[in-house]
Amino acid sequence: MDFTQADILKATEVGTWLIRLDPESGRNEMYADSTMLHILDAPADLSPQECYEHWYSRIGQEYYDYVNQSVENMVRTGRIVQLQYTWHHPAMGEVRVRCTGVRRVNGNDGMICIVGYHRLVDNMDETSFLQEELSCMEMENQRIQNWIWRRDSSRQQVVSGQSAHQGLKGRRERSYSIW
Question: What confidence tier does 54 reach under pLDDT thresholds 50, 70, 90?
Fold first, then answer.
């Protein structure tokens, strides 16, 4: 079977991007792969600054602070950050987007570089974790009936069933549910 990573990303409609931020001048750039440009409904001939503006200017108004804070977290911590927000697609109107990014090494020109992926969520099927007839309340009731809390002088621990649990002091314990 012959396939590439690009084929997989295109088939699953996952666009990849690289954003460069200049904290001194405020200039921002986005470099997007062909799948990302398709998702954004953006022309391929946009400059990096125009591409960034095409994406950023369409973020749902109520999500700007959240998106900005998430980007700041990527830059400050270097950790992978995932976010979900609304975005105004030129053809589809308001859509939900899931995005994940992480800071990479800065360029020689002092610009901060983050990379990641972007995906529209509204056009995905999602299998429900629970059967429809099992409500959240029933699940919570089941959890309460099957778990007990036990507290001793060294820790508080949840124990259940006939499985062994690692205690905080490293010793293994056998615990049993009372139901």
Answer: very high
Give the tokens for residue 105. 């090494």
Distances 157 to 2, 18, 47, 103 between C-alpha atoms, Å: 50, 44, 56, 37
Residue 121 has pLDDT above 70, yes or no: yes
- Residue-level length of the chain: 179
Q: What angle do CA 16, 100, 84 make, to 5 degrees?
A: 115
Q: Is the pTM of this model over 0.70?
A: no
3-state class (DSSP) for residue 151: strand
**Which among 53, 103, 97 is positioned nearest to 78, based on CA atoms?**
103
Are residues 18 and 31 in contact, defined by beta-carbon separation less than 8 angstroms?
yes
Closest CA to 121 of 14, 38, 9, 34: 14
